[in-house]
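Hi team,

Below is the intake form for Glutamate/aspartate import permease protein GltK from Pararobbsia silviterrae. Please confirm the fields before the structure is written into the shared record.

FORM ID: S-0412
PROTEIN: Glutamate/aspartate import permease protein GltK
ORGANISM: Pararobbsia silviterrae
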Amino acid sequence: MPVVPLKHHGRWVAAAVLLIMLAGFGVSMVTNPRFKWHLVAEFLTNASIIEGLLTTIWLTVAAMAIGIVLGTLVALMRISANPVLNTVASGYVWFFRGTPVLVQLIFWYNLSALYPHLTLGFPFGPALGVFETNKVISVYIAALLGLGLNEGAYMAEIVRSGLAAVPHGQREAAEALGMSRFRVMSRVILPQAMRVIVPPTGNQLIGMLKTTSLVSVIAMEELLYSAQLIYTANFQTIPLLIVASIWYIVLTTVLSIGQSFLERHFGKSERREKTTKSMTVDAVKISNAGI
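The structure came back. Fields below:
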């Protein structure tokens, strides 16, 4: 008896309605003169916009690097048997995840209101050096501190979850072979944990790219602030916001493609395990059939 596939009329209706809505929106974007696409094309490669774009890329990479390194260290402290390290790491995560990143950025930028001078030395001892806070904590340093320290708290939880996903027997087997703790962590635990760590880290990187727009509140000339400076002068707000959005979408797309390649790379071992299990099951079935 032939099998008749189930017809999904609702899907076709929903797809048709969605296509009609998208077509209407597309026509509106093309025919509405207020979008001013000629200005969008003109400012898309504007020197100030490109400079702000490069600043955004640099800030994203630098802040994310700080977050990954710091997050890995904090994650190792959190799983440590040392109660002091565990408490310090837990307090760090609690504080920086509990306060908005925008507040942290403004706080670091205005640190001189609390400490006009930074002193290098030991408590109750002679000062080795005294520096003006405004000169030390520039807008770039404030942006890196605000974004990097905040990201470190989230990366700590991502790395910790990845480490916890590795079976404890892997560590025991490596230690039984006489491997040091450092080699166990770097050669056995972390490579296996990367399968769990990479996907959320990619999401955090994409989120960091868009979070950099918050540094516009401290007058750092990244992509959004560069667009704001231009439309403040020529009052072309919508076209400049579209320009910034286009560049954000382009960068996000590139990062998403890179993330997919990394996930494939670190997922090779998992696919090999599935293939091996499948071949083992097939071999057992064939053996049983022969019996």
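SUMMARY LINE: The two ends are 33 Å apart (CA to CA).

Thanks, M.
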